[in-house]
Amino acid sequence: MPSWIRQLAALFFPSLLEKDPAPLSTHEEMPEEEDLHKAGEGPAVPTDLQDPTEPLDPPPVAAPIVPPPPVSSLPSDSKPPPADTVTAPVSGRKYPTGKGVFIQTVEKATRTGTPEALAGFCENLGMDWAMLLVLWQHDKRDRKYDADKDEDQILDVVEAAHALRAKGIDPWIWGWAQPGSDRIDTFVKLMRERYDATGAVGIVLNIEKPYYGRKGSKRKGYVARFAADAKKLMIALRREFGASVPIGLSSYGAKHVHETSFPWGVFALYCDFGMPQIYDSEHGFGPGYPQRCFDSWRQDFEIVIPTWGASKAHTSQQMRGMTSRTPIAPAVSWWDLNHLRYSSARQGVVREYVVTFGETPSCDARVS
Question: Strands 129-136, 170-176: parallel, antiparallel or unpaired by DSSP?
């Protein structure tokens, strides 16, 4: 590992260099058929899927998406106003634009596993931005697990961020968060270190079951506790990062299924955009599933950026069907690069998808 990278690591997150490397996350052992996100959450919908031999419907046209207006003041428990200027990509917006992809590990995203190869792969797919995993908080409360990645893995992420930027691709970072005051404090601290080290444009929070489905969650009072933890997390992040750093939420596409206990409104209050995971890996939610996901997220988020599945559970035809039925958005993304490397057909779907922008925050997206 180059000495300048280790010096950079010593400046931004010395704690990683002082301790023994933490054990790898079990989630990082990712055979091609695995997917960390489970698309089949909630009750199944009638399986009136379109016959794959039939022609696909043209993409629906959504109403223009306009960012929320600035807020004149910032109460301690409210969402900070958008900054006048943001150090961001050419768009200067508080959310990604164009095509993007989530990345679980640098070393498993390509055959050689180097940051340079990862950046080249993203460039080949026509990516405008890439979402690098920097933190996955495990269920175990032992604090050593909060670090998730060892020193070399984090340095690979830092190198990958620089390699992506050299290709004109905006690096973003994302992390999986656990509730609880001690876990929240650690999450914010490590995300700050790794945001500074990578020079990322912004961050995305992957928030799922820990914030709605802990043991006993159906008992009275647990819904309020989920909301309180969510608010604590978001206030801590906004106090640390301020109003100018874009923050987004990635979670279940089937928002309507998890609405009763998941604190959607709290996250929407503090986040700049939402990223529904529109996977349907079991292919049981019907052809209207992408539209239902998009519509339910638009109830809380002004900016909605869909994330589609690209794992072994999806054929290229199914991927095209999903993209064609999702409303137009300012950006699109796929889960994830580590799965895409195994299929040239799935890579072809991603490569051929074109997003073109007009003068407004809305955009026109078509599969060529």
Answer: parallel
In a domain, 224, yes or no: yes
Could you read off the pLDDT tens digit of each residue along the chain, which spans 368 residues?
A: 555 555 555 555 555 444 333 332 333 333 343 333 333 333 333 233 233 333 333 433 333 333 333 322 233 343 433 333 223 333 346 999 999 999 999 988 998 999 999 999 999 999 999 999 999 988 765 555 555 566 778 899 999 999 999 999 999 999 999 898 889 999 999 999 999 999 999 999 999 988 887 555 556 677 888 899 999 999 999 999 999 999 999 999 988 777 778 999 999 999 999 999 999 877 888 889 999 999 999 999 999 999 999 999 999 999 999 999 999 889 999 999 999 999 999 999 999 999 865 333 333 333 32
160 falls within a domain? yes
Closest CA to 264 of 232, 295, 293, 226: 226
Amino acid letter at 339? Answer: H
- Cβ(98)–Cβ(355) under 8 Å? yes
- The CATH number of whichever domain residue 215 belongs to comes to 3.20.20.80
Contact 363, 97 (CB under 8 A): yes
Does a structural domain hold residue 231?
Answer: yes
User: For 115, phi and psi rounded to 5 degrees?
Assistant: -60, -40
Residue 53 lies in a domain: no
Distance (Å) of CA 168 to CA 108, 109, 158, 171, 356: 22, 19, 16, 9, 17
Structural domain harbouring 216? 96-367
User: For the chain, how many structural domains are there in total?
Assistant: 1
